[in-house]
Glutathione S-transferase (Aspergillus tubingensis), 205 residues
Amino acid sequence: MSTQSSQTVYHYLDIGRLGRGEVVRLFLKDAGIEFSEVRYPYDENWPQVSKQLQEQGITRTGLVPALEYKGKILTQHIPTLRYLSRDLGRYDGETSWEKYIVDAVADVYIDWRSEWVSNFMQPSEKYKNESTAKYYDVVGKYYAETEGPYLLGDKVTYADFAIYQIMDNDRRTGTIVANLPESLVRFTDAFEKRENIAALIRETK
Ligand SMILES: N[C@@H](CCC(=O)N[C@@H](CS)C(=O)NCC(=O)O)C(=O)O
């Protein structure tokens, strides 16, 4: 999909710092990309608004986030981050193996995010007691494979934004595990100190 404008515009639901969109928003902030935001109330009018967005070509599926970026419209939040990473020439691994690790952790995140979305109104016992334990263990082990603080060591990649944000969302819905793996404590501490992220956290706390 194409757009005439070269301005970056972020389209998402008006649900604060929850959901898939915030992963893209954090990434844009970190990268220092200027953007404007269009937020849609997630209420009884949303199905109609979603249909209009489809008709306008802002989203193919009726779902958001959608990003107008350099004359194109990007949807599907993880492919959006991959596109931006390639465009910026940073936020990805360098070797084929590193890129694979980043993609693999992003894929675990996609499963985790789907389960989080199904559970965020009323978390099931299975999500609270089994799923989260599994995801924090699996992802914690990936992060423990380097000295950290990020997935690939000292270089931040697009998967770090997704993992930070799903942990943040679990904290907000009271579903974060009691004992975070040490590798993820180290990661969260470092991530929150990143210049543009720290400023964002201060603004929205
Ligand atoms: N595969 C899409 C999924 C997008 C998606 O499910 N977005 C949710 C918000 S996080 C949405 O638009 N929900 C509104 C609806 O279900 O109508 C992505 O990764 O961006």
Notes: The chain has two domains: 9-88, 96-194. Helices lie at 21-31, 46-55, 77-88, 96-119, 125-143, 158-172, 182-193, 195-204.
